[in-house]
Amino acid sequence: MMMKIAKALPSITNIFILYFFLGCQVHAQESSLKNHSVDSIFKDFKAQLQKSENLQDELGIVKAHIKMADFYGSLGIANEALKHYHEALEVQTTQDTLSVYINNKLGALHLSLKKYGPSKIHLVESLNLAEALQFEKGKATAIGLLGGVAEKESDYDEALEYQRQSLALFEKLGDSTGLAVTFENMGSIYEDLEDFDRAYEYFTKARNYALHSPLSVQVNIINNLGDIKRKNGEFEKGMEYTQQALELAKSTGNTHQEESALKDMAKVYAELGNFRQAFEFMEAHADLNEQEIQRKNTEQVGALQVLYEVKEKEAQVALLNQRNEIQSIRQNIMTLTSVFILLGLSGWFIYFKKKKQQEAKISVYKQRILQADLDRKTAEEASLQREIEFKLSALTNYSLHLSNKNKMLENISRTLSNLKGRNQTMVASKLEALVKEIDFDLSKENEWTEFTGYFEQIHPQFFQDLNAFAVEPLSPAELRLCMLLRLNLSSKEIASILRITPDSVRIARYRMRKKLPLDSKDDLQAFLLQL
Asked: Residue 268 in contact with residue 238, Cβ under 8 Å?
């Protein structure tokens, strides 16, 4: 992998030494932690953040959040670091190079936590923004970190491609530190691929470019050179590089690289068969590691303690403010309630007095309205009843008129038909024409249309309900039969109106029964009278 997990974080940190946005880098911050107490540094950063928030200084707030995030990141408190980076992004309203820096930081932090998905998201966003802004250094850093993600996911071809792109950008910028870090990353990839010769070649290039880079970058590269020589079987040369790295790490107080060098020295002596010396270096490594763990634990505990105290104070202040706000709201509510009660009582007395005066008038008006409404409904019902009786009488008279008319016309037709053969030719022709005219008049439907209209005025739902009950469609002739049965006419009267025989009426009634849901015992006319 880029360097075993113990070596990954320094490489990532070195990439960000390229940025000087804030004038306060992670490396400088780590050195500061050794010279000042954690709580004093935290309180100083917290005060800067509070001051910027009070002044509503957006840029100051963003920078303060980044300082807090870098501070927590140097202590290994990743969750708080992530929180402050995200808060910085939320405050940042403009998409500029500072947004690129924050997204690269988030990508690097997620990479160190082995959360490769979120890391890619932030790095791709940073890359897109850097391209839009033509910010080459931010773009080179984002691409290099994407190469780191690909290496962790064992996609070495993609990792090398990313590092080559990053290398080209740093060469264009003439950035020696960026070139050193990128060559180191490429050497780490070849080390993972066990191509130790090419790894040594790239680590050597990295060292040549790192001559003016921070010492933390140089000692890391020298450690890698020693490790490669040891893996390639060149133990003496490997020991020489590792010894240089050890001395440089001690002189700069770089405990992490000192641990790595001690461990590599132990491995070299073990390969040479000098197990006593190897044991001594491993013991020194264990002691230093324990001291470093204790130191970091102390720093973390101190930071968390200060964080807890600050949050507790903030919570107390928030609680006090909330209580004061609640108390103020209660007082306002009590005042308003008292005013509303007084107004309500006054209004109630006035209303009650006027209500009594109006109740008598309202009672009289209600009685008048009820009586008028009752009279109107009574008149409407009487009028409606008279109208129904009139229409029913008219309908009955109309049906009798149809019956009498049909009988009369039949008699006339029969008489004229008998005379047709007895008279002269001219008389016969005229009589024949008269017979046709009368027969034509008998076949007209106008009277049936008027008759049906009267019927529907009295029984508006009859045909709709009848068709709903019918199991088969009803013909116009059957509908007429049902209409006459609904008027409670006898078969003889129906036969006269329809100009058919009573037997034909009986047969038509029988056929009608089959189209309606009636049992053999049910009466057809009774059924129709209920519709």
From this structure: yes
Q: Side chain identity at 199, as an amino acid letter?
A: A
* DSSP single-letter state for residue 76: T
Q: How far apart are CA 284 and CA 511, in angstroms?
A: 117
Domain annotation covers residue 275: no
Q: Is the dihedral of CA 432, 435, 440, 443 positive or negative?
A: negative
As given in the structure block, the two tokens for residue 82 are 């992530």
CA–CA gap between residue 505 and residue 486 (Å, rounded) = 14
Q: Which residues contact 25 (CB under 8 A, 6 or more apart)?
A: 16, 17, 19, 70
CATH number for the domain that contains residue 130: 1.25.40.10
- Overall domain count for the chain: 2
Tokens describing residue 160? 């090398």
Q: How far, in Å, CA of 18 to CA of 177, rounded?
A: 7
Smallest Cα–Cα separation from 226: which of 217, 216, 234, 218? 234
Q: Read off the DSSP letter of residue 163.
A: H
Question: Does residue 360 sit within a domain?
Answer: no
Residue 407's closest CA among 482, 487, 500?
A: 500
Structure tokens at 495: 């036969």
CA distance 13 to 2: 13
End-of-domain residue from the set 160, 188, 210: 210
> How many Cα atoms are found within 13 Å in the side-chain-facing hemisphere of 82?
15
Quick one: which H or E segment has residue 443?
helix 425-443
- Cβ atoms of 164 and 201 within 8 Å: the answer is no
Helices 215-231 and 255-271: angle between axes, nearest 10 degrees: 20
3-state secondary structure of 459: coil
Tens digit of pLDDT at every position of the chain (531 positions): 333 333 333 333 333 333 433 333 444 444 444 445 677 887 888 888 888 889 988 889 999 999 989 888 887 888 888 999 999 989 888 888 999 999 999 999 999 999 999 999 999 999 999 999 999 999 999 999 999 999 999 999 999 999 999 999 999 999 999 999 999 999 999 999 999 999 999 999 999 999 888 888 899 999 999 999 999 999 999 899 999 989 998 998 888 888 888 999 899 888 888 989 989 889 988 888 888 788 777 766 766 666 666 667 667 767 777 888 888 888 888 888 888 888 888 888 888 888 888 888 888 888 888 888 888 888 777 757 755 764 566 566 566 666 667 776 777 777 667 666 665 665 666 667 667 766 666 555 567 787 888 888 888 899 999 999 999 999 999 999 999 999 888 888 888 888 889 999 999 999 999 999 888 888 999 999 888
* Cα–Cα distance list, 526 to 173, 449, 470, 494, 509 (Å): 107, 25, 16, 16, 13
- Write out the residue range of the structural domain in which residue 514 sits: 459-531
DSSP 232: T
